Amino acid sequence: MSTLRQTAPTADDILGLAEACLARLPPHMQAAASNVRLVVQDYADDALLDEFGIDDPLELSGLYSGVPLIDESVTQPSIETPLVFLFRMPILFEWAVRGDVTLEDLVAHVVIHEYGHHFGWSDEDMDRLLAEE
């Protein structure tokens, strides 16, 4: 008799889902997204949560850090590397609690939302792209 061992998706699993989502973007968007560093961590650190006034670390599933492309200037380019953070445990918690969405779809939603900040998209732009997923 064998036992089935199930474990929570790892940071690498979340990263793989995020990269698959990015690979489905149109080529011109993939090119712009390639300048953004994607980081998966279990939770946002305390300093970041404090900065945004968030008490419960499960409330923050992703974050964009950088200057949106629409605010970049040829004469004054940003020296900051744009980053997208995905926070694994809040994503997994939402996935488990909701039960009505696949992990792939939930990660794609967070990825599109955070990269949307990089592109300078409105919430309507992000919703439209997610509807096309």
Could you characterize the architecture of this molecule?
48% of the residues lie in helices and 11% in strands. The chain is mainly α. The protein has a single domain (11-68, 78-132), classed as Zincin-like. The protein has a 3-stranded mixed sheet with strand order 1-3-2.
Net shape: globular
CATH topology call: Zincin-like
Strand content: 5-15%
Oligomer: single chain
* Secondary structural class: mainly alpha
Query: N-to-C terminal Cα separation, in Å?
Result: 41 Å
- The level 1 CATH classification is Alpha Beta
Number of domains: 1
Tally of helical runs: 6
Helix content: 40-55%
| Architecture (CATH level 2) name | 2-Layer Sandwich
Spatial strand sequence of the major β-sheet: 1-3-2
The major β-sheet equals:
3 strands, mixed
Summarize this entry quickly:
This protein has helices at 11-23, 27-33, 46-51, 88-98, 103-119, 123-132, and strands spanning 37-41, 62-65, 83-87.
Helix and strand arrangement:
Elements: H1 11-23, H2 27-33, E1 37-41, H3 46-51, E2 62-65, E3 83-87, H4 88-98, H5 103-119, H6 123-132
Helix pairs in contact: 1-5, 5-6
Notable traits:
single chain; mainly alpha; Zincin-like; 3-stranded mixed β-sheet
